[in-house]
Amino acid sequence: MAGLAKTMPDTSCCRRVVVLGLDGAPPHLLRQWADQGHLPAFARLYREGAWGTMQSTPQPHSAPAWSSFATGLNPGRHGIFSFMNRLPRSYDCRRIDALDRHGQTFWDVAGACGRRCAVLNVPVTYPVTAVNGVQIGDWLCPSLQAPGATHPPELAQELGQRVGEYRFHADVKRHVIAGRHRKALENLRQGIAQKAEVGRWVWDREPWDLYVLVFVETDAAQHYYLHTGDERHPLHAQAVQSGLDGALLALYRQVDEVLADLMSRLGDDTTLLVVSDHGATANSRGRCFMRSFLRNVGVLHMRPPGGPGERLRRCLVQGRKWAFELANAHLPKSLKVKLNRLLPQARERVFADSFTVDVDWSRTRAYSYYWETDPFVNLRGRDPDGIVDPGDEYEEVCRYVADFLRAARELRSGRPAVQDVRLKDGQFYGPFADLGPDLIVDWTENQIIEGLVVQVDGKERVARADLRDDTIGAHHPEALLLAWGAGVKPGEISAEASIMDLAPSVLALLGCPVPAGLDGQPLESMLDITVETAEVRGLAAEAPATVYTADEEAEVEDRLRNLGYL
User: Fold this and answer.
1) Which of 289, 323, 393, 444 makes the best surface tag, with the fewest CB within 10 Å?
2) Predicted confidence (pLDDT) per residue in 94-141, tens digit
3) pLDDT, tens digit, for every residue of 420-432?
4) What distance in Å separates the CA atoms of residue 534 and residue 6, rounded to the nearest whole number?
5) Over 50: is that where the pLDDT of 211 sits?
């Protein structure tokens, strides 16, 4: 980092900060369970600390949300919109990692101020950069043997000797689909237990000032078991009948024990933050219908089938896509790794082909990806074959699609399928804003869509699912925020809190000057401290280029599919 301007912090400040991250933790359930006495450690935080919710990123996906947590920037400035980012001036997408993120993390800034940092499992940190302390990468890291898994590099070997195989991500999806819930839940419990063990090991061995520990197992848990704990979920009765009732709460009881242990270790000089990147709600499965919906309202057009050869080619492309989805759902990981060796990079080509094979770009005004709910306008000058002019025509297409979405009804219930549609303007801002969708769809909560009904030219048209989605829970924009200990004002936190406010708040708690120009601001409604600001120049040190082997590609993409990102 090039340096800090203005004044450096008062080095006599000895406050320390602990951040416990729970990917996908639903604030409403944690508060309910705490009030009911199921989670005593969480209940103590609500009684004695500051509490509330904060808004996640406009699209509450884990990749942009944790990147905003780390940098204090919105996705238009840090450049991460999903685990699959579209490429500039292209219809293609590729998987991201930490090298794609712009801006400095708060642990980089803290390290430059002389604070020792321990940063464990934060999503979108692989490959890790050099830090003033220690760092373990996230589940984008295929294994401890991969370059960039830890800092310092020798930490990976020590960690392997201590725990054997490190569970960057729990293997859940295929067991859930096969009905092996005992195995899936055991994998989640083991993942939480191992990360807690490693967290205690790092806690005891490192002289840290900033300690960040994230559990991603809680996100996998809500994706597949939200209905076991949320009585509002449309499938809750099914969970009760199947004997799964209480499965999600049991996992959070385990997390509560981890939290209690952390709290017992804190001194009077330490602040504890417990946060999630987003919340959880019933999966509407709306994204499965978006491409069919766009065809029904006349903005996404397919090319004519053509001759027998063209029809055969399309059938083969779509057939390969379904074959890959079935293989991912049912084959053991060892066999998928072997297939990946035989067919390197086949997955990317198959899914890219399935998206573009039948689109008539000369007539298409709006489109969406198979892995992405929200629509893009086929904009001239931005998209390779864009036909919509910027300005009035662009705004007209956005309004046209948004109006149909707001009017859409769910097939069985007849209820509105969409709660709101937000335009990109005002949601994303910065040099990378064009990588994000032009419309953001908020689906009606606690409703599962079985068909999307719209009236077009007086005729009823029903959009059918274009892809399969096995997840029970989806992401909600309200994220968890709890604070306790030194420098915290007890009570409810401002309702306008944002996930972008965490980076400047942590720096302020550490006594470091907060970089000027961040999109987030220190949460002064919960901070009982004086906040300094400073100009920060330069970016974090470059990490080594990410080069995955064929086996590593299969491992990481398997994790992405487990969470529904592919």
Assistant:
1) 323
2) 889 999 999 999 999 999 999 999 999 999 999 999 999 999 999 999
3) 999 998 899 999 9
4) 6
5) yes
Average pLDDT over residues 142-159: 95
Residue 478 scores a pLDDT above 50: yes
Domain-by-domain residue ranges, the chain?
19-283+473-514+523-562, 286-463
Q: State which H helix or E strand residue 16 sits in.
A: strand 16-22
SS3 category, 45: helix
Compute the distance between CA of residue 61 and CA of residue 123 in angstroms, rounded to an integer: 11
> Angle formed by the axes of helices 308-330 and 346-356, to 10°?
130
The gap from C-alpha 564 to its chain's centroid, in whole angstroms, comes to: 11
pLDDT given at position 342: 56
User: Regarding the domain delimited by 19-283+473-514+523-562, which CATH topology (the fold level of the hierarchy) does it fall under?
Assistant: Alkaline Phosphatase, subunit A (3.40.720)
Q: What is the dihedral of CA 64, 70, 72, 77, to 10 degrees?
A: -50
What residues pair up with 479 in beta bridges, in sequence order? 54
Q: Helix, strand, coil: what percent of the chain each, to 5? A: 40, 20, 45
Which parts of 206-307 fold into alpha helices (H)? 217-225, 236-241, 247-265, 290-296
Residue 389, CB-side half-sphere exposure with 13 Å CA sphere: 3
CA 555 to each of CA 308, 340, 398: distance values in angstroms, whole numbers, following the listed order: 37, 10, 38
